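yo

u said u wanted the structure for the complex thing, so here. seqs first:
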Amino acid sequence: MPLDGRTFPQSEPTAPAGDVNDLLSRPGQTVSIVNDRGESIIGQQVTTSALWQRWNITITTSSTSSVFQVRPQSVSMDSSGGANIVWQAWNQDITTSSTSTVSINPFITTSNDLVTFTGSSAASTLQIWSSWNHAPHVWQQMSPEDRAAHEARERQYTEQRAQAEVERKEAQDKAERLLLSCLTAEQRMTWRTRKCFYVTTRSGRRYRLDSGSYQGNVKFVGPDDTVLSSFCIHLRHDIPICDHLLAQKLMLEADEPTFMRIANETRRAGYERVSDQILAAA
Amino acid sequence: MEQIQGTSPLDGSSRTFQPGLGLGLIEQMGQNGDTKSIWNRRNAAEVTAARNTYDALTKKGYKAYHVTGEDGEQGEPMGDFDPDCERMILVPPLQGG
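structre next:
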């Protein structure tokens, strides 16, 4: 999800979900695995439970590995050859630590038509399937008409995503202009060089407002810029980050106690909570 | 402050804001950046439309600040709509993370 929390349209399979057993028992059907961008094969998605069922029947494991890869193209096959081929192809590249657990971390990356599962933590079968569901799927090949319709929708999604990105950038630019119109010359300079700025409140406390994240981006800092506490307080996530910063600045300057009542504070070990001090004095 | 483009809260027509010309400006934060409403502070109908905009937003929990835009001067929190206020920013509710 982008930083400002917007969501973008995702491509979805158009045909209803099928069962892997039915799919693989029909001669002449091509079954393949695509990556999470849907780049290799377009078709009918197989139900998760059926996938896992088949997987559990067929999989055998041999050794431990924390990094392994599946080549989506290598499992493309004629289903008349039998379901085992899919799993054999899968098993050529995957190694696991035992028959009941494998070393799959939910974190997955895809590149060059390889799906890579990385990590060393042992995962339960449920987690394996969860990981799988975030990356490749098994699809049934579509008719030319369905494929054309699907590709048209893919183009539409791509255009919508591009348009959404343009609008997101415009919103960010607009919010940045509003923020800059409310900053001092010194704050603007800091913003241009470091993408943050400092606010000194009426209590004399100094805060640094960072732009890198919505979470805990308001820092109470010491004279040497050491972060003594972080505060998590934000607008709706679909609002551009610069508007968050301006909202935080306005409230800190105008009403520091209310800011402290709303925000969640994470203090540095060994230091008192700033919010307690401010609220006690309010 | 540079010229600011916006729309009238009364009829949605295009407006340009410049300080010191008897105009009012509401900058309402939102998903697409802020929406700017610009009205003539000497036109009663436009002032009423601006007040309605202000009241509708503050009822939704928006917080209003009077800002001058003069080199980052601190914004002042507002209660009721002030027709003499030249520039105000309306901020959606902040929440703890």
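The two ends of chain B are 34 Å apart (CA to CA). The beta strands of chain B are 4-7, 14-17, 23-28, 35-40, 63-66, 76-77, 87-91, 95-96.
cya
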